[in-house]
Amino acid sequence: xxxxxxxxxxxxxxxxxxxxxxxxxxxxxxxxxxxxxxxxxxxxxxxxxxxxxxxxxxxxxxxxxxxxxxxxxxxxxxxxxxxxxxxxxxxxxxxxxxxxxxxxxxxxxxxxxxxxxxxxxxxxxxxxxxxxxxxxxxxxxxxxxxxxxx
Length: 150
Prior knowledge:
The chain has 150 residues and is α+β, with helices and mostly antiparallel strands. It has a single domain (10-149), classed as Roll (Pnp Oxidase, Chain A). The protein has helices spanning 10-24, 73-80, 103-116, 118-125, 133-140; strands spanning 35-41, 48-54, 56-58, 61-66, 83-88, 91-99, 144-149. It has a 7-stranded antiparallel β-sheet with strand order 2-1-5-6-7-4-3, with helices on both faces. The chain is globular and about 40 Å long.
């Protein structure tokens, strides 16, 4: 599946990585409501890889959508090694990541993202505003979604 949006370069890449800097400066609490840091193990390098991601949380589960689909580096890394670390605000948690395969479960997650911000869901994940349950079910098969559980 081709990415919903092109991978950022130049100044856009610096801006996308800004949340990592905020977290490292101890200011992660400012953006923790919408952005977490996911640390995966590089599938080829074996080194830690940190990426800021939009998320939805239900209980002890964090849901993530790969903006670039299943070809996103962080998604490929967690498929290769599901042991990850999640940092939300001042909390760090070890977890196990699981790519979701059930279309109904993915549709529920897409709805969670849409309910929080229809504009962001449309822009970053291609979820149309006012999408019906049937629309989300059809879209779910083309989206890479992961669940991280403690």
